[in-house]
Amino acid sequence: MPTIGYYSMTNGQGLASQVNEITNNGDIAVNVTVPNAAQLASLDALYVVNPSNSGFGAEYLSNLGNISAAVNNGMKLIIFDRTVTNANIILPGGSTITPVRDFASGTDINVAAGAPTAFTNGANGVITDATFDGGNFSNHGYVELSSLPPGSTALLTTSDPTHIVAFTYPVGSGNVFYSTIPLDFYTGSSNAAITPAEILTLFGNTLDVICFARGTLIQTATGLRCVEQLVVGDQIAVMGGGTQPIRWIGSTKVSGAELRQTPALRPIRITAGALGNGLPSRDLSVSRQHRILVSSKIAARMFGTSEVLVSAIKLIALPGIYVDDSVEEVEYFHILFDNHEIIWAENTTCESLFTGPQALQSVPPAARAELFTLFPELQSLDYAARSAALIPSGKSQRKLVGRHLKNNKMLVGQHLRPTIARQDEQTVAVESAP
After folding, report:
1. What is the mean pLDDT of the chain?
2. 8 A C-beta contact, residue 24 and residue 188
């Protein structure tokens, strides 16, 4: 159960009206009295409101270094701001944004083009172009679309689609959400324009969307879940139909020092839409050897099957896919089923942990021993792991990617969807076989 701190810039501590949206989502609410390193250390997310129309809290600003460090280490930062002007100074990794305090479209909020389904039609409700209209005011301005930080996902706009009312972006191992909606004005009240139910939908869906710190959203039988929240027994959507229970899940943390010493441990970032057909729906970060399912006519001509698994490191020749040198640390998650499976990550099909001998070397020794206890056959000399799809040789993978690049063809020619009401999967730290 995630722990979410709540804090008001003007009050120097949390507002009682902030608690409901946290606990309604099933999370633990903690009143943050000073956003220093000690109080931030135990938080999965920090929910901040700025009720001031003229500036930012001195205490918040003096602790911005601590907040930035916590975000880089995996915390999620959620800010609803009334001031807007100079908001770039309060956002970790957001110094380049151009915020504009403006009320010309202050009663109109629309869903941004390309906003993820987890936000617009998530487990907590539906958000449409009309959901937050008619407030006094619904927003206090916007951020210019062209100024958003790298990897940003626009969520809400004014009537002008280039004027962003809410967006989210990755910072290190964490994530930041910023909005010009004066949410503190509407929380704890019964306003006809932005109702308590709509606030719960906004906050709950926002938490789902920004779950990118240690992993992206996974679609389970009960809805979207963050990878770090998954446990053994959770049912996950698999290619071929239906779900499969997780048999084992573990993770490997890689520190900044380890990343500097061994750059090969840095993740591969696949930016939103880089694979084609709008996929992934948000930036997806995986380990270098984690395999993505390529589905194309080129693959069919080369291998006799249109669906093949390709290591992420082989994809960096393509636009929008690169080794991410910006992260200060990373945590790779390993999810194992009874069989090798294809699952969904940011609406993109990729593999679960493959139990081939090379893949198992990526799992820490203690975890590997646990796996051998659960699956003693993995130690058998005649054990042969079976993959969920064809895995071409490294040379063939490079040739496949080269042909897609030369012919300007998408790696994902069709959007494969789960056959149940769910779609997503493993994440920023999804790990798999080399």
Report:
1. 84
2. no
Is residue 123 within 8 A of residue 223, CB to CB? The reply is: yes
Residue 214: per-residue pLDDT? 54
| Cα three-residue angle 172-177-180, rounded to 5 degrees | 145
What pLDDT score was predicted for residue 360?
A: 65
Residues 284-301 as b/e (b if ≥16 CB within 10 A, e otherwise) read bbbbbbbbbbbbbebbee
Alpha helical stretches, state H, 153-267: 183-186, 196-209, 256-261
Tokens of 65: 């270094």
Mean pLDDT of 106-122: 82
> What is the rounded CA–CA span in Å between residue 64 and residue 70?
10
Question: Which is nearest to 368 in space by CA: 318, 431, 325?
Answer: 431
d(CA 332, CA 182): 36
Residue 393, C-beta contacts closer than 8 angstroms, at least 6 positions apart: none
Q: Classify residue 340 as exposed, middle or buried by CB count within 10 Å of its CB (0-12, 13-18, 19+).
A: buried
170's tokens = 């990755």
At residue 87's C-alpha, the angle toward residues 82 and 92, to 5°, is 125
Across 82-186, the runs of DSSP E, i.e. the strands, are 99-101, 110-111, 121-122, 125-126, 141-144, 153-157, 163-171, 174-179
pLDDT band, very low/low/confident/very high, at 426 (cuts 50, 70, 90): very low
Going by the DSSP 8-state scheme, the letter that residue 41 receives in this structure is: T
> Phi/psi at 133 (nearest 5 deg)?
-75, 155
Integer-rounded Cα Rg, in Å, for the chain is 22
pLDDT digits (tens, 9 = 90+) for 197-226: 899 888 887 876 654 335 567 777 766 677
Instruction: Tell me the helices (H) and strands (E) count for the chain, helix number first.
Output: 12, 25
Q: Cα–Cα distance between 180 and 185 in angstroms, integer?
A: 12
Q: What is the pLDDT of residues 72-95, one digit of tens each?
A: 877 889 999 999 999 999 999 999
Angle formed at CA 331 by CA 329 and CA 337, multiple of 5 degrees: 165
- The structure tokens listed for 359 are 């893949």
- When pLDDT is averaged across residues 179-192 and rounded to a whole number, the result is 87
Task: Please tell me what DSSP assigns to residue 420.
Answer: S
The CA–CA distances, whole Å, from 243 to 76, 155, 236, 419 equal: 29, 29, 5, 9
* Of the candidate ranges 72-86, 132-146, 188-202, the one whose mean pLDDT is the lowest: 188-202
| pTM of this structure | 0.58
Query: Which among 295, 321, 281 is positioned nearest to 239, based on CA atoms?
Result: 295
- CB of 79 closer than 8 Å to CB of 7: no
Structure tokens at 165: 């009312």
Tokens standing for residue 392: 């071409």
